[in-house]
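Subject — a protein and its fold

Tokens — whole-number codes for backbone shape
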Amino acid sequence: MQEKVDTLQDEFCEGKVIDEDEARNLMAATALKFCKDTLDHLQETQEKAVVEAEVEENRIKDARGKLDALKQVFLSNESSGEVSRIAEERAKKWSQN
């Protein structure tokens, strides 16, 4: 039976065209699915990055506020030259570590 089908397909060149069209459709569908999966993954990654950036932004704002408060305390108690000297000493200490 399959031989008859193959013979008819060969005779009318129909089977090959159908197979090629099916193969093209399958490849296109596979490529589209891969693209969709990649886009979904990239979107998830971007959403996570946005959340992490917001968290870091809040941490920076908090640290900046604390730093400003410390500056006010030091500047009210010591001269600005003394604060600069202390800052330089601490910077040297951190750079050595």
